[in-house]
Amino acid sequence: MSNYLIKGGALADGSKRDLYIADGLIVEKGSAITHPAIASAIVIDASNSLVLPGFVDLHTHLREPGREDTETVLSGSRSGAAGGFTALSAMANTSPVADTAGVVEQVFRLGQEAGLCDVFPIGAVTQGLLGKSLSEIGAMAQSAARVRVFSDDGNCVADPMVMRRALEYIKQFDGVIAQHAQDPDLTQGAQMNEGIVSSRLGLRGWPAVAEEAIIARDVLLADHVQSRIHICHLTTAGGVEIVRWAKARGIQVTAEVTPHHLLLTDDEAISYNPVYKVNPPLRTQADVMALREGLADGTIDIVSTDHAPHPTESKECEWQEAAFGMIGLETAFSIVQATMIDSGLMTWTDLVNRMSIAPAKIGKYEKQGLDLMVGSPANLTIVNPSLSWRVDRDLVKSRSRNTPFHGLELPGVVIATMFNGNVTHG
Amino acid sequence: MKHLLSIADLTPTSAMSILDTAQEMSRVSASSVKKLPTLRGRTIVNLFLEDSTRTRISFEAAAKRLSADVINFSAKGSSVSKGESLKDTAQTLQAMGADAVIIRHSASGAAQWLADSEWMSGSVINAGDGTHEHPTQALLDAFTIRKHLGGGTGDLRGLQVAIVGDILHSRVARSNVQLLTLLGAQVILVAPPTLLPVGVESWPVQISYDLDAVLPIVDAVMMLRVQLERMNDFFFPNPREYSHFFGLNRDRLRTLKSGAIIMHPGPMNRGLEITADCADSARSVIVEQVTNGVSVRMAVLYLLLAGLQEEEPSVNS
Amino acid sequence: MSVALPAADITRALMRISHEILERNSGSQSLVLLGIPTRGVHLAQRIASNIATIESATVPLGTLDITLHRDDLRMQPPRALMPTNIPSVGIDGRDVVLIDDVLFSGRTIRAALDALGEIGRPKSVQLAVLVDRGHRQLPIRPDFVGKNLPTSLTQSIKVHLMEMDGCDEVLLESQGGAS
């Protein structure tokens, strides 16, 4: 295992510190490294860059097992490393569904074999994501994968009784239910945000209330049974308000927002280009501003990518035939910098919190999301905020090309990523 | 103008140019020899991925009167992945040298998607896409209205037109609202709130839930087809209640102001949104709409296909 | 640029053509005048009013747009259609006089003959033009000519009429510079 000297970079708080990395750990930190083995270290030039704890994604679709043509644990890990991530959370909607210890252990093992970042499987709440009966939550928690986050993402746990029981059941190992908040009856056949744009485009509307009603119900349920609820991909101003209210009441609720919902609006649908078709849908500019505000003031705890790879043919078609979802691992940091840092809404310390520390806490990922202290695992990313780059879907590390940011010039380049002391990108 | 995808792409001048051209085309349709050499050697494909016999034969008649070669391509794409088939179909049509594709599709935006793709280079004409738009229907409706009202000048300013029924699912309504407004008319939408889209408040229209209050003040009333299946999605309780509040019947016919006309894009649900005696009354121009449809579609084909295609041309020379 | 026909000559030529039409057709009983848009329409109106003065008779007058029959549509951007108005008497069995401003390649008249064929079957079709500039590409000749104006292919003819242009004149322009 190589040892490294990361030289000339600044930490999130702006202080200049060099880092000496050996045996996967941060061994020394300071303005002048004195370690005796320093001469043998590979030097990584971090001048003009920031050295930050590695990003942690709590919401990733890695598609393996089942749709290895669109992504694998390995290709997704490469994509994550390129985006500055050192931990991913593999969503349960694979084929077969990750609703047994066997499947989550398989995904966990694939992640270890890839060795580019931690891959923490998320377990399904219900068998087959069907919302009817609980999956083997305990077995998954006890498995080698040590699952703590459970989600039927892609589907909503719509039945309130099933949701209540799931919230209660996970308390025994301090788990969390990550809810995909979407009332299925209010969104039958829905294609895009219901509003002015949908009325003109003639695409079936997806009302904000379909998301907000579930959020409201579930924070009340979490309060009632004193359990932890995490709201996946918040998209509406009303949802932000409900979460803010719930937090003020002391309810154990956390929430995430995706980079694309921080930047794009339902106006994109005017092109009828299905690359903008996503679940939950792009909302209005007012929603985007409320999400940014919520992320800045901490109502929204974290940024998650909802990286959702799809094959070309699922997007090269009519809007209503197309699949929902966008890839996002490699663009997440740049979008957050553009929308939150460059706009002055957040500091770099806030960004580290939203993209590394807080998601690791929610998922109980103990060796992730740690401050860059001597003795900590060397999970970090080096970013240069003053460089910019142009997104090219043909150059992504992901196996899929469905990025809505193709051709866009974005600020912030991930110079290098290090996972347990190994360089995984750069 | 290369494509006709949406009324939103038209200006008042280009819309008038289509209607004026249609006026001349209607003379051809009325003459004994209904054939012009104008589009000789041009290949036009009727790509109807959703059933619509009326619209297809109207376009076919229009193309044939201009001597174009017409290929009918009808397929119900429900079993195959429609995405693959639309791309493959478009590339096939391109390879066959189609100068224009007239597309009817159940998916909103399909025509625009086809035009924006690089799968084919010819003109794309939207013959109805999902619940989005049906621009030639709106053009033929405007053509019909101006023949009867507004002194034939094409100026629809000051006219009031009611569009009644299932606005939410109607591509005809979406196109008509834009075109009639563009030409200066005032549109009043009449429907139960369940059949109006959320966001309709941003449209340049008046909204009413009261057909009886609207009928005496409008110059034209356009009844939309209401599908019975809507009842199962709770849009209205039952057909009887729908007809009672929003159907055009003999009693309501009497309240129309003199000179007002009754329109319907067809096919009609006689007895539901319109009674037979209204559809067949002297006020009704429903059959004439069909005739005008051919003239309007001839005009569109002429303007899109007869001349040299520039990079960014307009309808006006 | 030079004036090939001043206003007075135009008036005189149209009067002469009016007389010639009447003479050839032994009066106005069977006549139908059809002007080809745009300037042919105004010339036809003037000839009709000349005939009304000469004969004290109203001759059926109409317009015939030939755009849809042109063979050069694809070489230019789409053209707006001009109105076609056939007099209520129709053209069947009539002596139809087509009236246009300039006769050049003959293609317009070929298109006009095609257009007429769709409307009916005249007893005869005759052609009156204000200017014949030569360079025919089809076997077509005028029956009544205001002025034969030999031109080169680099020159162009501009007809101005009071109704549209504010004055009556026929101009000869040389594109190459030397006039």
From TrEMBL, chain A:
Its cofactor is Zn(2+). GO terms for biological process: purine nucleobase catabolic process; pyrimidine nucleotide biosynthetic process. The keyword Metal-binding applies. The keyword Phosphoprotein does not apply. Residues 50-236 form the Dihydroorotase catalytic domain. Pfam families: DHOase. GO terms for cellular component: cytoplasm. HAMAP family: PyrC_classI_B. This is Unannotated protein. It comes from freshwater metagenome. The lineage of its organism: unclassified sequences, metagenomes, ecological metagenomes.
UniProtKB/TrEMBL annotation, chain B:
Residues 158-304 form the Aspartate/ornithine carbamoyltransferase Asp/Orn-binding domain. It catalyses: carbamoyl phosphate + L-aspartate = N-carbamoyl-L-aspartate + phosphate + H(+). SUPFAM superfamilies: Aspartate/ornithine carbamoyltransferase. One of its GO terms (biological process) is 'de novo' pyrimidine nucleobase biosynthetic process. The keyword Transferase applies. Its EC number is 2.1.3.2. Keywords: Pyrimidine biosynthesis, Transferase. Pathway: Pyrimidine metabolism; UMP biosynthesis via de novo pathway; (S)-dihydroorotate from bicarbonate: step 2/3. GO terms for molecular function: amino acid binding; aspartate carbamoyltransferase activity. The keyword Transferase applies. It is an enzyme of class 2 (transferase). GO terms for cellular component: cytosol. Residues 2-146 form the Aspartate/ornithine carbamoyltransferase carbamoyl-P binding domain. Belongs to the aspartate/ornithine carbamoyltransferase superfamily. ATCase family. Catalyzes the condensation of carbamoyl phosphate and aspartate to form carbamoyl aspartate and inorganic phosphate, the committed step in the de novo pyrimidine nucleotide biosynthesis pathway. This is aspartate carbamoyltransferase. The lineage of its organism: unclassified sequences, metagenomes, ecological metagenomes.
UniProtKB/TrEMBL annotation, chain C:
The keyword Transcription regulation applies. It holds the Pfam family Pribosyltran. Keywords: Transcription, Transcription regulation. Residues 11-143 form the Phosphoribosyltransferase domain. Gene3D superfamilies: 3.40.50.2020. Signal peptide: none annotated. InterPro entries: PRTase-like (IPR029057), PRTase_dom (IPR000836), PyrR (IPR023050), PyrR_bifunctional (IPR050137). Belongs to the purine/pyrimidine phosphoribosyltransferase family. PyrR subfamily. PANTHER family: BIFUNCTIONAL PROTEIN PYRR. This is Unannotated protein. It comes from freshwater metagenome.
